[in-house]
Structure of AAA domain family protein:
Amino acid sequence: MQKVLIVEDEKAISGVLHSILSDELTNYEVLVAEDGLEAYKLIEKDDFALVISDIKMPKLSGTELLKQALQLKPDTTFVMISGHADIDTAVNSLRDGAYDFISKPIDINRLITSVRNALDRKNLVQTTKVLQKENTQLKKKVNKKYQMIGTSEALSKIQNMIEKVAATDARVLITGPNGAGKELVAHSIHAQSERSRGPMIEVNCAAIPSELIESELFGHVKGSFTGAIKDKQGKFELANGGTIFLDEIGDMSLVAQAKVLRALQESRVSPVGSDKEIKVDVRVVAATNKNLQKEIEDGKFREDLYHRLSVIEIYVPPLDARKEDIPLLVEHFAQIIADEQGNAVRKFDDKAIKALQNFSWTGNIRELRNVVERLIILGGNPVTAEDVAAFVRK
């Protein structure tokens, strides 16, 4: 239970205040200190949601209590009580960090209002701090999830390219096989860019039916087609001020490609069923596992869109091309899985790592992650080469 401290040397006043506030603040424990020195000792030992302090007191004045307590615990909230002769002092106490002051004789309604406002403000500040802390922790988790792990020459080249590209607004086309880490590259570009404070919106073009892709990207208005029961913002509009990641862009229909091309050329989108144009400020990062040059030759991909998207092209090689990164990747995945499951980190012995390096990873990093999780669940501690042989089929 949170606590409220009354600091008042006149027992008649402190008794009345204690009685009234105990009735009003049923979720708080109300304590009384007879002078500033006693109050300071209590504040040293405990945290108080609110301190209501008289200014003129023996041993330690309310003004000195305010200054010393805020040095000790800066988040403490004070409401000062002052006689008419102490108004200037009370006003100065606001400059020193008090939330409010109440003049004597005390208006009980005024006091209760001030106390409730002070506690509401305190709770709001605490809630905000908790949310900020949770947000920071979430960002750390997100950053860890999309961290690029390895020391290979191939990965170093990609990281150097990302560092140069991220500082610009240039469009980027990321190519490479499935599971190689194209999504990680896209997130790293966004995280290191000036747009990192804005949203990053992901669109898996292969997972959206061709008849819905236009609505998904540009939004629609109510009644524009069967099932459009209300207006909907598109991904481009949601990504305004940030980055849109068009994954598997090679699977997008030619009709949708034409719409995307127009959006890139004009920085404007039109929701389905609307004549209204919406200006958008979006950086586009796209990815594909297909050979777009061949797709262009086969008439399946627009050449003009390809040139718009591939201002910078980053190729992500398969895991088999950088097997020297496997030990660090295994350690990284083992830590993530331990954090997710709330368990201690499982170790892999050197022979187990060597066995994993000897495999051909057709599913790339995504496959390796799944294998690490399987070995942690089914293998011993540490995971051995025998575990690899028993539980990994290659």
